[in-house]
Amino acid sequence: MTIDIETRFRFRADNPTDVLLQFEAARVPEQTLDNLSTTMSDSPHIARVAAQDTIGERLWVRVEGEFDVHHTASATINRMLTELEPLDRLDLHDLPGEAVPYLFDSRYCAGDRFQSFVSSEFGNASGGAKVIAMRDWIADHFAYTPGSSTPTTTALDSFVERQGICRDYAHVMITFARAAGIPARFVSCYAPDVTPQDFHAVAEVFLADPSTPGGGAWYLVDATEMADPAEVVKIGVGRDAADVSFLTSFGPTEFLDKTVSVTRSG
Amino acid sequence: MTIDIETRFRFRADNPTDVLLQFEAARVPEQTLDNLSTTMSDSPHIARVAAQDTIGERLWVRVEGEFDVHHTASATINRMLTELEPLDRLDLHDLPGEAVPYLFDSRYCAGDRFQSFVSSEFGNASGGAKVIAMRDWIADHFAYTPGSSTPTTTALDSFVERQGICRDYAHVMITFARAAGIPARFVSCYAPDVTPQDFHAVAEVFLADPSTPGGGAWYLVDATEMADPAEVVKIGVGRDAADVSFLTSFGPTEFLDKTVSVTRSG
Amino acid sequence: MTIDIETRFRFRADNPTDVLLQFEAARVPEQTLDNLSTTMSDSPHIARVAAQDTIGERLWVRVEGEFDVHHTASATINRMLTELEPLDRLDLHDLPGEAVPYLFDSRYCAGDRFQSFVSSEFGNASGGAKVIAMRDWIADHFAYTPGSSTPTTTALDSFVERQGICRDYAHVMITFARAAGIPARFVSCYAPDVTPQDFHAVAEVFLADPSTPGGGAWYLVDATEMADPAEVVKIGVGRDAADVSFLTSFGPTEFLDKTVSVTRSG
Amino acid sequence: MTIDIETRFRFRADNPTDVLLQFEAARVPEQTLDNLSTTMSDSPHIARVAAQDTIGERLWVRVEGEFDVHHTASATINRMLTELEPLDRLDLHDLPGEAVPYLFDSRYCAGDRFQSFVSSEFGNASGGAKVIAMRDWIADHFAYTPGSSTPTTTALDSFVERQGICRDYAHVMITFARAAGIPARFVSCYAPDVTPQDFHAVAEVFLADPSTPGGGAWYLVDATEMADPAEVVKIGVGRDAADVSFLTSFGPTEFLDKTVSVTRSG
């Protein structure tokens, strides 16, 4: 399966402003990229730095006036695709150091407060089956409602209000997993069938890897049920949305417009 | 200067419980360790994993019944000690990838909401001078009040309530720095003169390194004014206290007692 | 049924401090009081003012040094006791002016954020049956856990954490009712069988009064299931716990001890 | 001075929905009303109930389809106008029962958390002078920024973010006053010179009334500095904005448009 991506967005700053961007399909073994192109307005400073867990890159740009971004890529997905249901949870003492931070509370995902709920609601299941139960619970109890949340909405807010968009679904999924001792991170991505078409966000949980005794791997989970792991093109990962915004501005900017197109090509 | 550390603590779990510990003086170039000893109760599972930014280690232990920990170390501090005041801020596009996540909002330190305050209160200063102004503002406006905060108190809470303990002072310092576009992280540590004697916490900010053109380095800042960077023995670092608790329990445990002794030895 | 109450508590203030107390059984038609006695330490200023909705009284005292309070009462309960299940909800436009404020969000009870949850979980029931469904849901999903909450815990916090004490159960009950358009208030009270014995708190909801066409009345509901409406001795009411604390201090005070005894006497 | 008011607004509900309105100039002794007219779309149910502290009225309407409201009034202001500066604070034990609830924390105004700040920032002043100091501090440190807050923004949020609109300024003013033991309430009103012209909100504090020994009175304070107490036409009062919204809908409604005109007429 190949996924074709094309995205354009524009914004402006009246005064010279540093902006951090992360919108490109990431070069990682699980997705092979072709036709990769990123075109941007001129900037006196552009710097690329490795993004979190070395998945993808962040771009620093210095912006004054209007700034246009145009990105295309064709991604062939090679990731391991497996049923989550039978996967074991790793014992905590078997978690590798790099998975441990994804157990901790982050800005939007504070798992500690959900331990009672998670234990009583999902206590009978374990590992992948527990993750599936969490995903289905969210899908059943939430309404996908564009405009119902803001950039500062937390998983706790969403849990109470029972609605949100992809970032909110991912935040709740991550929070539940952490409360159950399963490392979970936030994945910013492209996927077809996302309605309305836009950047997408899903969760990724760390469970046992059946092909590596004692080892673990990250598995995609989408509580919105809009994205199939076989078709997700990763942009980057983080503890939650605070880490992988497609645009973080360090000063006033005005966002002008954005189009995202994600299609299957064969 | 050599700093001698001795800490003991005990806790218990009625049922087998995974516990993550991080209490040991970290083996990092800036502090040379001697007389290092860690003795713990027996556990069916003990695992050591690298901690955040490879500073120090985390220990997983499986606990059932009472669990005792005893740790000693003598640390000679070699870190670069410099006046913060004249240090420049790095331009954002010159920040290395590993410093970037410390600009983002974390569980207890949401810099985004403090931009107006930080800009109006500290807008005239820059770089190290701005950091010093922030540190002094906190020292002037806060009362160090054991018992006034809880493990879920955020920097925003502390900013409103104007009191707290070392973690709260560090959280506010980190939050102000991030709001000004200066990466800042949380450092769990040992230091003499901390009253009452206990684990300590300070902030670390990323500013220009005068010895490396274009480069930056981390510098310790303690808004409680109890610890001198020349005498701080690092345990670990994180985005905030959520990342470097000395004890994180994944199930019910009862904390029994703790003693921390930190002295200068010549 | 007569309920005998005896309560004593002591606190101290090092400097002259105004303190507001509300601990006496309220003189209201629904409970006839005998053997009423309130003895307190001397104070340069004591003032009694009517409490909220003219249910009970608040006492202002000026305290310096130790202050002792001793209160006794025997209350015979005359309130209308009825099954809630068959009671109708009043149409909103039939609510009297004095019930309307109890629809609004208060410090600890913000009903607006729970509308989706309440509608999907309790949408099939109406009036008293809906209130009973809410009460049973809380009783089923919460663990009564002394020490799990603090004076600033909100209904939203409790809803997420699924535990608390009587004030938290009452706050969640009130919040759910308001989210369904049913006025609800907080009742501070005495009741036998409260374990551990202490001041108690329950909710009160405004539903149709079958004996008065078009009219409504307040009905007690206790989601902790520890108190029977036939045995509740009211102290006061408010929008939530912020309004009817037994002791509100306007300056530093140290609480020393408290005993509450509530028994049935024939 | 006479103030002429004219306001129109329209909203719609697809299904029959109860809506609570409070937009009319209140009939209270401090303002004499003329040319009073309220015209609304037909509704199967309209009920008027007394509003909080019997200041003004609330209207229940049952809405289906589009609903139009048109209100005019000419108000002559008779209220006591006095310099706040020299007014004394009432001792707490001299507060009448009806002022006491305005000391307590409400949904958007939790004074308890601001005691340290208020004591250190305004501790040297007392009574009316303290209120003026608070008002001036807010005016100096806040930016009036339409769109920067939402209906759920609290005084604590605004204090941190240092910006907001009239409701936010009033919330912070009320919160500061309560933290200093001065009862304070929220006043929804009309006033000329409000920019952009709209419903307005100010605070009201309870201080000594020099004309009544031992007595107190409510005094208007506007931290936005847009309204003069001599020209404020009250609509209603409450603990905070939760109590006196001009439109509270108990079901989905779509707001269509609103015009408010407030002019001086000689």
For the structure shown, list the relevant keywords.
Immunoglobulin-like; globular; 4 helices; alpha+beta; homotetramer; 2 domains; C8orf32 fold; four-stranded antiparallel sheet; 266 residues; six-stranded antiparallel sheet
Structure explained in plain terms:
4 copies of one chain form a homotetramer. Chain A folds into 2 domains: 2-77 and 244-265, Immunoglobulin-like (Sandwich), CATH 2.60.40; 92-243, C8orf32 fold (Roll), CATH 3.10.620.30. In chain A, a hairpin with a 7-residue loop joins strand 8 and strand 9 (216-221). The model of chain A has no long low-confidence stretch (mean pLDDT 96). Chain A has helices at 115-122, 127-141, 155-161, 166-179, and strands at residues 2-21, 31-40, 46-50, 57-77, 143-144, 163-164, 184-190, 200-208, 216-221, 233-238, 247-250, 254-264. Chain A starts with a strand and ends with a strand. In chain A, the strands form 3 sheets. In chain A, strands 1, 2, 3, 4, 11 and 12 form a 6-stranded antiparallel sheet that branches. In chain A, strands 9-8-7-10 form a 4-stranded antiparallel sheet, covered by helices on one side. A two-stranded parallel sheet of chain A has the order 5-6. Chain A is an alpha+beta fold. In chain A, 48% of the residues are buried. Chains A and B meet through strand 3 and strand 4 of A and strand 3 and strand 4 of B.
Contiguous runs where pLDDT drops below 50 for at least 5 residues of chain A: none
What oligomerization state is this entry in? homotetramer
CATH class of the largest domain in chain A: Alpha Beta
At the fold tier of CATH, the topology name of the largest domain in chain A is C8orf32 fold
Helix content of chain A: 10-25%
The CATH architecture of the largest domain in chain A can be given as: Roll
Number of domains of chain A: 2
Main beta sheet of chain A: strand number and arrangement?
6 strands, antiparallel
* SSE series of chain A: EEEEHHEHEHEEEEEE
**Estimated structural class of chain A:** alpha+beta
Beta strands of chain A, count: 12
Question: Strand share of the residues of chain A?
Answer: 35-45%
Using only CA atoms, what is the Rg of chain A? Answer: 18 Å
Number of helices of chain A: 4
- Coarse morphology of chain A: globular
The mean pLDDT of chain A is: 96
Distance between the termini of chain A: 6 Å
Biggest interface pair, counts: A-B, 38 and 38 residues
